[in-house]
Structure formats: structure tokens, C-alpha cells
Specification:
This protein is an alpha/beta fold and about 450 residues long. It has 15 helices and 15 strands.
Length: about 450
């Protein structure tokens, strides 16, 4: 009888475990524009699997504000219980993501906060950007029933307060440095729990599940697939700038030669990869893509339709540069310093790409493979080489146009039929012509 009871309990627990699914989604390292698509897919997968909760395993010093905003929106939109497990730290953009979750648990010695916006040099952003980030944090905290004053103080060090309303009671605050002007708020695990910004202290995912009453749940870990890894690689600032630069240079080199060849194809592929990854990562809007497309169309017209290089080509290059500049700007309010950095980055990228291509070309010309593919030795006339095909003795001779010369064509001189070019005028078939000059295989004629 006892064995039957134990077997029944085992089967019951196994059934509960099989039906209860929890997804673990790691958010670690730098928050970049390749991360939101992965988070959105993980949330969708959890919804389709009927998961009871999604636990975001967070350990980050932050990253891009626009990327964090996309992740925050995705978390707020789901109906599944969302939990932030701050596994040591959630700084800057990581704090915004954590506040968007319904529950927050932190490891001992963890930290959350310091979410003021800075530029690439680490300097404080403009008031426009600070205002945006401050209200993003406040509205997210308000949505989850957390203190908005603390959320704002994580962004703006100019804010001050002496009391906070916690659970309906006014509490005097004396242990937060960030309550003073000139100090940003960063909460330790203990202070975050005290001021209701976190729900508890845990050391492992299993402890979080125990707190949620999901101890027997099946934990499934979400991982980035190859395409998401590829997009994150392409949206890396260094890789993105190189793709943009080489794409631009490939198009420029193609303009130097007739038709369409390897440089143009290479440039088009680089630009397609850059624009495609930017669009997937929501850095590029449809307007940005249309700007670049208009520039590309003008370049195609210049290359394939209009001879030479003129207004269409110059306009195309200018429009493409403008579009690429727009691609470097995030889809959030920005200040003048961000615009300046974007312009500087694009300029450095183009100049660096040109210099890099020049050095690469010089290195390539010294390789054995290059010598096999090209004729590197000049065949000088002084060394006995000659381009003559034996037409010099026809100088001054007369013949008849065997085809229309517009301005080139064929002429019959005696028993020889030779290819000629006029001085620029058109000569109809059958008219008499005289050979004016012979330079190798180039024969110039005039109507007589």
C-alpha cells in the first residue's frame, strides 16, 4: 500500500512538472541592437509553449537606450509572469529592463540603478535625452507599482527628496546617497528590498522558482540562434561601419569603370547586409531605407544609362551618405552630441575605409597571385616590343567605306579590309576615304 502511495505521488509530481514550464532568458554583457529580436522571439516561444513565467537572468552594465526600450516594450506587452533575476548587477539600460518585469529578485551583493544617459565619451547627455530616459524609468516603475521617485533618481542626479511613500506610508530616507543633489541612485540588494524596488534576495534560479511557488517547473533556457547571432555581429559598431565604408567604396570604384563588375557587386552586398541588419534591429526605419534606395537608383542611372559622371552620380552619393548618417542615429530623442558623434563616425569610417583599401591594394599587387592574374611587366618599345600590325605602309592610301562610319567601321583599301575611325564626322557606306594616320591598330580616315 505504501509503495502505491509513493508511486502515485511520484506520478503526480512528474505530471505537474511536465505541465509547468518556465523559460530562462539570459541578458548578459552589453545591451546592443541585436538583442531585442532575440528577446522578442524568446517571449513568443514562451507564450506558444504556455509557460507560467519567464525569468530574465540579468548581469549587465547597460548599453543602448533604444535597444533597452524595445526590450522593455516587449516585456510589458506579454501576459506571462515576467521576473528579473539580477544576478549581480543591472546597471543603466539593465535597470530599465529589470523595472519592466513584474517581479525582481537580486543576489546578495547585487546592484541596480545608475541609469543616466551618457555619450560614447562617458559624458552626461543633453537634458532632452535625460528627460526622455527619466520619464521612461518613471512610467515603467509606475506600471509595475514601484516608486517613481527612486526610478527618476537613478537617471537624474539633480533631483532631491527627503521622504518616500512606501505602502501608503511616508518614510524618511536617510540611507540613500542618491537622495541628495548631485548624486545618482544605485540600490544594493538590501536597500532595493527595503524600498520595495525588489521583491526578495535569492542566489539561484531554483530559489526564484521556490519564491514563485514553481519549484517543480521545467526550466527551458532560451538561446540565440545563428541568425540572431549574425544580426548582432552585423550591428556591432565596428562591423557596421566597415560594411558601410566598403559598400560605399565599392560603388565609387564601380563608377570609375564602364558597366557593372566585382567592385559594384561587392559594395552592393556590403550595403545590403548593413541595411538589412539595421532594419531587423529596428535601427533603420523605412524612411532611412528609402533615402538610401533613392541614392542607389541615381547611381545606377549614372552607371548604366548616362555616360561619364555628372549630377546624377554626385546626387546619388550625397543622398546615400545622408541615408547612412540617418542610420547611425537611434530612434529615441537625442542631443547635439549624438548627432556630432554620428557624423564624426561616418567621416572616420569613410576615410579609414579609403586608406585601408589603398594599403590593401598595394599589398595585393606584391603577391604572386596578383602577378599571375595580371601582366605586371611592361613591354617597352625600347626592348623590341611593338604594337604595330603592319598597316603603316597604308598611310596616304585611298579606299572606300565598306560600312557606314559612325564614326568607326570598315574600309576596303585594295585587297585589305581594315577597321578605321573617322576624325569625328559620319561617312556613309561607299564614299571614298583617305588614310590620315596609323598608330598601331588605330587607323584614322577622312572623306575625300
Amino acid at each position: 500500500m505504501k509503495m502505491r502511495i509513493l508511486l502515485f505521488i511520484y506520478l503526480f509530481l512528474s505530471t505537474v512538472s511536465a505541465e509547468t514550464i518556465v523559460y530562462r532568458v539570459p541578458i548578459q554583457g552589453t545591451i546592443d541592437l541585436g538583442l531585442p529580436p532575440y528577446i522578442e522571439r524568446a517571449i513568443t516561444t514562451a507564450e506558444e509553449a504556455g509557460a507560467k513565467a519567464i525569468i530574465f537572468d540579468i548581469d549587465t552594465f547597460g548599453g543602448r537606450v533604444d535597444a533597452a526600450t524595445q526590450i522593455k516594450d516587449a516585456i510589458l506587452d506579454t501576459d506571462i509572469l515576467t521576473v528579473a533575476f539580477i544576478n549581480r548587477r543591472a546597471i543603466s539600460a539593465g535597470a530599465l529592463i529589470s523595472l519592466s518585469c513584474e517581479k525582481i529578485y537580486m543576489t546578495g551583493g547585487g546592484t541596480i540603478g545608475a541609469a543616466t544617459a551618457v555619450d560614447m565619451q562617458g559624458k552626461k547627455a543633453s537634458e532632452k535625452v535625460i528627460s526622455y530616459m527619466r520619464e521612461e524609468m518613471a512610467s515603467t516603475a509606475e506600471k509595475r507599482g514601484r516608486n517613481t521617485d527612486i526610478a527618476k533618481g537613478m537617471v537624474d542626479e539633480e533631483l532631491t527628496f527627503t521622504h518616500l511613500v512606501i505602502d501608503g506610508d511616508s518614510v524618511e530616507v536617510t540611507d540613500l546617497e542618491g537622495r541628495k543633489e548631485g548624486k545618482l541612485i544605485t540600490l544594493t540588494t538590501e536597500s532595493a528590498i527595503k524600498y520595495k524596488m525588489a521583491d526578495g534576495e535569492t542566489e539561484k534560479i531554483e530559489d526564484v522558482l521556490a519564491e514563485l511557488g514553481l519549484s517543480h517547473a521545467e526550466i527551458r533556457s532560451a538561446k540565440e540562434n545563428w541568425s540572431e547571432n549574425f544580426v548582432r555581429f552585423l550591428t556591432n559598431p565596428i562591423v557596421a561601419s566597415l560594411l558601410t565604408t566598403f559598400g560605399f567604396l565599392g560603388i565609387l570604384f564601380e563608377l570609375q569603370s564602364p558597366g557593372w563588375g566585382i567592385p559594384g557587386t561587392f559594395g552592393a552586398v556590403c550595403l545590403a547586409l548593413s541595411l538589412g541588419a539595421s532594419y531587423i534591429a529596428k535601427l533603420a526605419t523605412m524612411t532611412d531605407l528609402l533615402i538610401v534606395l533613392v541614392g542607389a537608383v541615381l547611381l545606377m542611372v549614372e552607371i548604366l544609362v548616362i555616360p561619364g559622371f555628372g549630377i546624377a552620380g554626385i546626387s546619388g552619393i550625397g543622398i546615400i551618405i545622408w541615408g547612412l548618417y540617418e542610420l547611425l542615429l537611434p530612434d529615441v530623442p537625442i542631443g547635439q552630441e549624438i548627432q556630432t558623434m554620428a557624423l564624426t563616425g561616418l567621416t572616420i569610417g569613410i576615410l579609414g575605409g579609403i586608406i585601408g583599401m589603398v594599403f590593401l591594394f598595394k599589398l595585393m599587387t606584391k603577391t604572386d597571385l596578383w602577378k599571375k592574374l595580371t601582366s605586371t611587366n611592361a613591354q617597352l618599345k625600347e626592348e623590341g616590343y611593338d604594337t604595330s600590325i603592319g598597316l603603316e605602309n597604308l598611310l596616304g592610301e585611298e579606299g572606300a567605306a565598306d560600312t557606314d562610319l559612325r564614326p568607326s567601321g570598315w574600309v576596303q583599301v585594295g585587297e585589305k579590309r581594315i577597321f578605321v575611325v573617322t576624325e569625328g564626322s559620319y561617312i556613309d557606306k561607299g564614299l571614298s576615304v583617305k588614310i590620315l594616320s596609323v598608330d598601331g591598330n588605330r587607323v584614322v580616315v577622312r572623306q575625300t
